[in-house]
């Protein structure tokens, strides 16, 4: 039986595994980070492709999430000196180490996903139709 988290967190000079795992969870927490990582695990994406692939995400939020993931060393960003500029995002080698975790999640979902109730998506901003003008034509 593996040791419990508590057994790994006590003692002088020992690594506090509970705190370390909280740091690990924080890397992937956020409304969109796991979905972004899932997509980038498949292939390299351009910014516009990522935005189209994630329904409901705003440009601002995608930019913020990608910047955080780049700062954490999970995503690399390549800017090409072209007009218009082209920017590509891909997982770093460090992030590729999460591949087995994603494979395990895929296997779990294949087995149990049908038993999970479908929830309506409330992500991102909803598009609001512009109000019609009150100008009367004569």
TrEMBL record:
Does this entry carry the keyword DNA-binding?
yes
Query: What are the record keywords, sorted?
Result: DNA-binding, Transcription, Transcription regulation
Q: Where is the composition biased (Basic residues)?
A: 122-138
Pfam families (UniProt xref): HxlR (PF01638)
Query: Region Disordered: which residues?
Result: 115-138
Query: Is DNA-binding given among the entry's keywords?
Result: yes
Tell me what this protein is called: Helix-turn-helix domain-containing protein
Species this protein is from: Ideonella azotifigens
